[in-house]
Design a protein that fits this description.
The complex is a heterodimer. Chain A is of the alpha+beta class. Chain A has helices at 3-6, 38-44, 50-59, 77-89, and strands spanning 23-31, 90-98, 105-109, 112-113. Chain A contains 4 helices and 4 strands, in the order αβαααβββ. The model of chain B is unreliable at 109-132, 212-244 and 445-479 (pLDDT under 50). In chain B, the strands form 3 sheets. Chain B has an 8-stranded mixed β-sheet, with helices on one face. Classes of the chains: A alpha+beta, B alpha/beta. Chain A: GO terms for molecular function: protein heterodimerization activity.
């Protein structure tokens, strides 16, 4: 799971009002290099919840993601590289996602989060 | 290479527009209209086989042989007509094209003709290929009755009659198992399309079917597909051992992400057609909430590369596993993540997704009618919630009577139906809806409440005991 996906996932247990962003529990990370596409990053930027990305990146030990981003930074190659790395290259292979409201734990195995709920949670 | 080749490209009926659009951009191509009953397009082109093989929207490409309307359907004159077909075909350019494709496929083979049996087993014996190539052929008949009751002949009869004619004219021996020329005869009512296969081997890297349902990957409802010989039939029953299934020898079988399949996997060519309808933009997140082996988002990134991000999810563990294998298969530079979830309760932020492209389960090999009538509207509600208001587009493929009403009446404020048409696949008629999300904000953040009596069904449609009890007691709306 990439942090871009994390930026969209939310806990949907019945009654939960603040199911986003999910906390991350890291057991194993993997970095898979990929080609950077600045155009994609510029388009995806306004769609992100930046604070959630920033916090998640820090949990994964990626401390070079700034807390605030100015639109001008999206022209800076160096920043785009860091942004690309955090958003798409680092994968959570093993670990868990945790609901901020209920502390429900969603396991991540082989890079796939299991977001299925139990009968009593829906 | 100035030769003009005459082709038939097949696709799901109703998605020809995608094929036509691609052919428009194929150099030296002219479309030949006139065949409407079959999904596909007839064309001539001067483009090389490599270029033709890049067509994404084609299921497969064949050398065009002939097309006839109003063919006799009674046994005697029908068989006579079919037997005379071979004599009416100019085989020279057809076999030239066949040779050209085999050379393109197997550049090492000095003979230019490859035996599918040998190459598939990885035993392409050098000595063998030096032997003067011997052509052997088979004819495969496929007969469908749409508006008429019955033909006077079976598919096997038809194949045999055409084969006899070919044998007499060309002198090739017929061989049902180890052939290197295959002619396909598709008869729909009193219309006949005759083509010659150009692709004889599938994905060389073996494709796994995680659901272990033989190796027939596509549902085959209501289509009578009779092989030309009893021999083939009996081996089929035993085990489809050495010979690859014909379903493998398709143009789309070569997609790099086609490593693992589930038994109702969508064809990549169909996925491409659906993507054409979604007007995907750079920076879009392309979601398939019921992804199966992930074909739709994986086709999106295979086609558009790093310009988009794919997101695939499914409920069934084998599907999730297959999608994950395909998503990490490499080669494609694009990004696609896989999540296990319930599409009727998507664990996604409201208004976070740009494009939803989803082929909901249809046919009788995946779920059943009752489950779908409950499931589909619930998925639509989730699609409404996760799509970005004002810009989101969804392409939904479904076989559900309630879908249209759900979109046009229940979700009227949120969805704008832009296009509704049918696609014909393996004899099934399936609805395709293209909807645009209106700028109306989504109802509420929360999950859509299941309707009374339809709550908490398992996938097999059985109401769980607990849910049945809850339904009786609790009637208060969620939050």
């Amino acid at each position: 799971m990439r942090l871009l996906t994390h930026n969209m996932l939310a806990c949907n247990i019945k009654g939960v009002t603040k199911g986003f962003p999910l906390a991350i529990e890291v057991t194993k990370l993997e970095t898979k290099e990929s080609e950077m596409n600045p155009d994609f990053l510029r388009h995806i930027y306004p769609k992100l919840d930046w604070k959630a990305l920033h916090d998640a990146a820090h949990t994964l030990g990626l401390n070079d993601i700034p807390e605030q981003v100015e639109p001008a930074m999206l022209e800076d190659e160096d920043f785009l590289q860091k942004f690309h790395h955090a958003l798409l290259e680092v994968h959570l292979e093993e670990g868990a996602l945790i609901c901020p409201e209920t502390n429900r734990r969603f396991p991540v195995t082989k890079g796939v989060p299991n977001m299925l709920l139990n009968e009593d949670e829906v | 290479m100035a030769a003009v080749a005459h082709y038939w490209a097949s696709c799901a009926g109703g998605l020809e527009f995608a094929l036509l659009k691609e052919l428009e951009n194929l150099e030296g191509t002219s479309i030949i209209p006139g065949i409407d009953s079959y999904g596909g397009v007839q064309f001539r082109t001067t483009s090389a086989p490599q270029k033709v093989a890049e067509l994404r929207s084609a299921d497969n490409v064949y050398a065009f042989l002939s097309h006839h309307k109003k063919i006799p359907v009674d046994k005697e004159s029908g068989m006579a007509f079919l037997g005379s077909l071979a004599g009416k075909i100019d085989w020279e350019p057809v076999m030239q094209l066949h040779r050209l494709w085999q050379e393109t496929e197997e550049p090492d083979s000095s003979s230019g003709i490859s035996d599918p049996l040998l190459t598939i087993n990885g035993m392409a014996n050098v000595e063998q290929t030096h032997v003067t190539p011997q052509r052997s052929f088979r004819v495969t008949g496929n007969r469908i009755c749409k508006d008429m009751k019955k033909h006077g002949y079976t598919s096997m009869d038809a194949a045999a009659a055409i084969g006899d004619g070919m044998h007499e004219l060309l002198g090739w021996p017929a061989d049902m198992r180890s052939f290197n020329v295959e002619v396909l005869a598709w008869i729909i009512d009193d219309e006949l399309l005759l083509v010659l296969a150009l692709i004889y081997s599938g994905n060389k890297k073996k494709t796994k079917n995680l659901q272990n349902v033989s190796n027939i990957n596509e549902p085959c409802a209501e289509v009578e597909d009779v092989e030309g010989s009893e021999q083939v039939k009996s081996t089929k029953k035993k085990r489809p051992a050495e010979r690859p299934s014909r379903a493998d020898a398709q143009l789309y079988s070569r997609r790099p992400y086609r490593k693992a399949l589930v038994h109702t996997s969508l064809k990549p060519s169909t996925a491409y057609g659906l993507l054409q309808l979604a007007d995907v933009q750079p920076g879009d997140i392309v979601l398939d909430p019921m992804c199966g082996c992930g074909t739709i988002p994986l086709e999106a990134i295979n086609w558009l590369g790093t310009r988009v991000m794919g997101l695939a999810g499914d409920f069934v563990d084998t599907a999730v596993e297959a999608a994950n294998i395909n998503a990490t298969a490499g080669e494609s530079p694009g990004h696609c993540d896989v999540v296990r979830w319930d599409a009727s309760m998507l664990p996604l932020r409201t208004a976070s997704i740009d494009r939803v492209i989803c082929d909901m389960p249809f046919g009788n090999r995946c779920g059943n009618h009752k489950v779908r009538e409950v499931l589909c509207p619930r998925v639509v509600k989730q699609v409404v919630r996760v799509l970005r208001p004002g810009s989101g587009i969804a392409v939904l493929m479904a076989q559900s009577k309630t879908m249209k009403e759900e979109i046009e009446v229940n979700q009227k404020a949120y969805l704008n139906l832009q296009k509704h048409f049918y696609v014909y696949m393996e004899g099934l008629k399936v609805d395709v809806f293209v909807v645009r999300r209106t700028s109306e904000p989504a109802p509420t953040q929360q999950i859509v409440r299941p309707i009374k009596n339809m709550a908490k069904r398992k996938r097999d449609g059985q109401l769980t005991k607990q849910a049945a009890l809850e339904n009786l007691s609790s009637e208060n709306p969620v939050q």
